[in-house]
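Minimal example, chain plus zinc ion.
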Amino acid sequence: MRVIRNQKVKARRHHICGGCMDRIFKNTIHTITVCEDGGRVFTCRTCRFCDAVLRDSNIEEYGEGELREESYEIRKGMPECQTS
Ligand SMILES: [Zn+2]
């Protein structure tokens, strides 16, 4: 798998985070990753919590929603960011 693009962007509309399956709200800074694997191109968006999970771990590949637990652990440490 090859990463074609990996950059921070501001959401122009709502998206779903590929790591925790939670919402990425409009105007939120998040990461967009475009990967190419055997000729197929994937686009994945991750919220800043999942970004933190990925930054602090050795996880390189994950399935949809697989970062949810770790992502929520990080959220707990940021009370102002908790989702209701
Ligand atoms: Zn996430």
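The chain has a mean pLDDT of 91. The chain has two helices and five strands.
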